[in-house]
């Protein structure tokens, strides 16, 4: 992913293999809604500039397109504009000549409400309810484009395609499909390429990957000769980020890898055959939306008391009861809907919580207390109440005054500021299929030096 780095040597070796284009995934919502809600990339500007400078120079020098998807960390319009500014700085710095297509994926709220009223939006599994008010309260809503807008940009002569939120695979499948490649091979190769060298046997750090599509098959290999693709490592990548490793959904259809065959060409190169792409009856675009959940302050603590750990759930229930009572006394006009305290227990089920199949407790656990409210001042006040009540709530088996938790930062709670959550997870049926994404073209001519 753009901003995570790659060896320059690997890029140069890949370019020496004469590719038809360079693709790079530049974002994801896997790490949460913050990038999408704020338009701020989680990776540094310096890291983005370094990667973009190498990629832009490589594409222009080799006269091949550079395709960037989910720009700026999440693909929202602000993320795209930030990335566009960096690219323009690099174009000026390197004095490059190119045509750039910028594809925005932000969605109009009135249009979405019309689609909702017309029954053209369908919720995905476990998604929250979607109403007109949910759409109105959203900070950012994007559609996740497929290959269609990217192909249009390439057909219109773009040397660089800077796309908003996009499926990872569409970044890499678009140009091959445009040139008549077998769609099963194109989409499957794209799935392997989208995380770079993640499909090698052992990847010590982010790196490049190269695919060659040959009819109904494709060859996959890493330009870095120290990395090794095997049938198992390549096949295993279909498990990554997919509920079903054999059915991978795109806006226009489904990549079916059920009958795919993975064969070793040698000890570093793999050939894949038998992949299929099935066109869907309905063209759909996934919607992602974010909202402000509130403001948050957290308390970091540790528990080592064996009596507490023997009955940890009862202890936390006692803490919650004590916290609610104290907040009600302190803020009699405050509704329980205006604040929330959440415990995360690391050392038992901090990662998976209720889904944890083996909630075994060791000799100590880490405890994070999250206090969320509609203002930062209130969140910090709630956190201080939660910290104090958890610290001193009565514990069965102990007599007298006790201190139940260790506080590595003392009473200095950690202010997180505004926090966000996803509030839309659905698909919409656009009609026509290209009505959701806006593309703008920019020409950057090379500046000729004055000769005196």
UniProtKB/TrEMBL annotation:
It comes from freshwater metagenome. Residues 51-390 form the Acyclic terpene utilisation N-terminal domain. This is Unannotated protein.
């Amino acid at each position: 992913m753009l901003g995570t780095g790659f060896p320059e040597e690997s890029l140069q070796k890949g370019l020496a293999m004469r590719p038809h284009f360079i693709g790079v995934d530049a974002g994801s919502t896997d790490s949460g809604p913050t990038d999408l809600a704020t338009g701020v990339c989680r990776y540094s500007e310096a890291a983005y500039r370094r990667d973009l400078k190498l990629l832009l120079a490589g594409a222009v020098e080799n006269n091949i397109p550079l395709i960037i998807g989910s720009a700026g960390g999440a693909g929202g319009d602000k993320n795209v504009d930030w990335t566009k500014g960096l690219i323009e700085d690099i174009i000026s710095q390197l004095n490059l000549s190119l045509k750039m297509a910028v594809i925005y994926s932000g969605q109009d709220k009135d249009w979405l409400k019309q689609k909702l009223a017309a029954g053209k939006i369908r919720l995905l599994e476990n998604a929250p309810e979607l109403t007109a008010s949910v759409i109105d309260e959203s900070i950012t809503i994007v559609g996740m484009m497929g290959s269609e807008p990217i192909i249009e940009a390439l057909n219109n002569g773009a040397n660089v395609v800077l796309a908003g939120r996009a499926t990872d695979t569409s970044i890499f499948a678009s140009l091959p499909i445009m040139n008549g490649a077998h769609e099963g091979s194109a989409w499957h190769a794209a799935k392997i390429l989208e995380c770079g060298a993640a499909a090698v046997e052992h990847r010590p750090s982010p790196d490049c990957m190269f695919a060659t599509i040959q009819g109904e098959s494709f060859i996959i290999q890493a330009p870095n000769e120290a990395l090794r693709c095997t049938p198992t490592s390549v096949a295993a990548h279909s498990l990554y980020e997919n509920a079903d490793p054999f059915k991978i959904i795109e806006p226009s259809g489904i990549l079916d890898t059920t009958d795919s065959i993975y064969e070793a060409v040698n000890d570093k190169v793999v050939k894949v055959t038998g992949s299929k792409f099935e066109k869907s009856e309905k063209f759909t675009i996934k919607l992602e939306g974010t909202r402000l959940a509130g403001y948050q302050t957290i308390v970091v603590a540790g528990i080592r008391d064996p009596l507490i750990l023997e009955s940890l759930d009862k202890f936390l229930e006692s803490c919650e009861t004590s916290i609610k009572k104290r907040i009600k006394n302190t803020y009699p006009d405050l509704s329980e809907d205006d604040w929330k305290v959440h415990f995360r227990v690391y050392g038992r089920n901090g990662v998976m919580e209720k889904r944890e199949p083996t909630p075994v407790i060791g000799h100590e656990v880490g405890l994070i207390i999250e206090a969320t409210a509609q203002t930062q001042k209130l969140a910090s006040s709630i956190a201080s109440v939660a910290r104090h009540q958890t610290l001193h709530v009565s514990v069965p088996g102990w007599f007298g005054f006790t201190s139940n938790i260790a506080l590595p930062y003392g009473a200095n709670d950690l202010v997180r500021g505004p926090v966000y959550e996803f509030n839309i997870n659905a698909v919409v049926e656009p009609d026509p299929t290209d009505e959701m994404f806006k593309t703008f073209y920019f020409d950057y001519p090379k500046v000729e030096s004055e000769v005196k």
